[in-house]
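re: ur msg from earlier - yeah i can do the iron/sulfur cluster complex, just paste it... oh wait u already did. ok heres what im feeding in:
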Amino acid sequence: MSPSPDPDRWRNSTSPNGPRPPLADEFPVVDWQRAMKRAIRSQSELRRRLGLGADVAADAGEHFPTFVPLELLARIKPGDPNDPILRQVLTTADESIDQPGFVADPVGDLQAEAGGGVLHKYAGRALIITHGACAVHCRYCFRREFPYNELGSRKQQWGPAIDYIRGDDSIHEVLLSGGDPLTLTDSALFTLLDQIESIPHVRRLRIHTRLPIAIPQRITTELADRLSESRLAVWFVIHANHANEIDDAVTESVGRLSRRGIPVLNQSVLLAGVNDDVDALQSLSLSLIDIAVQPYYLHQLDQVRGAGHFQVDVARGIELVNQLRQRLPGYAVPKYVVENAGEKSKTPIA
Ligand SMILES: *Cc1c(COP(=O)(O)O)cnc(C)c1O
Ligand code: SF4
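and the outut:
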């Protein structure tokens, strides 16, 4: 297998897996909210669209249902149960097997909640759980069991979160997370932004989002303009795990940010059957740096209940990152980290 991807891959209208399937006819470009509404919400529908047999996936549990937008579906190769994007969204019988050490809240989010949906674990940074919704449901997600209804900033009442941040002048950076903060409407998001900007000691805003990958048209010029006009330094952290996730539309979406001077970083999770080989990780990093996105973190899987089948041994992870270092520019090698509940930063592994 050739380690370097075709550099012109994302300029073609075909997916990296070859010509787009006939499915493409069903993909008129719609705005992001309509893209959310028309997303696939059951494993049987996902299987049907991809021509997969009923043996391939189990049904998703009620607390973390299936959610796959057609924009992402278009990057999955039909008929291939091992497709690296499909593996991230496909339920398997393994999900319902209890594995020792895999729990509902592996990173101690519930202990760190400071009120109003704010997680304040690390020096200088506070994270707001803005909204429970996401544009794709990733089966390995560490927040798959997060009690958003109890803890999120309910119904976009930002008051308590803003009061908390205003009351602590050591907080210079606010992270918007979720769920996914870009599932908020522009008007909700801009209201929140106005309030964060009104706190004098906050200097930076970081938006953690998978929307530029899942539904790239979410990054509208209006949104990008509003962010670039902020008095805050705005940083984006997107989330891609495999080079196949990066297509023309993603390139456009990221470009709307970077052309306005907004830096974009990427974080990935090391996932068995998705990116646990050096060629896949190398292609991912190259695809990212070629569109001026810097690989930031490669996360060791958080041990959340239902995700045991995605785990890769730490020893293997270290070996992979060391191999990457021999193939890539230094800035293209992500920091391999794990999040340990109670620690004051992510813990570097390699
Ligand atoms: C991961 C995380 C951050 C950000 O950590 P960085 O190392 O600065 O990227 C901030 N707050 C919380 C609660 C986190 O989980
Ligand atoms: S987009 Fe992020 S928060 Fe949402 S399910 Fe995927 S990994 Fe979890």
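cool cool. Residues 158 and 204 are 18 Å apart (CA to CA). ping me if u need the other ligands too
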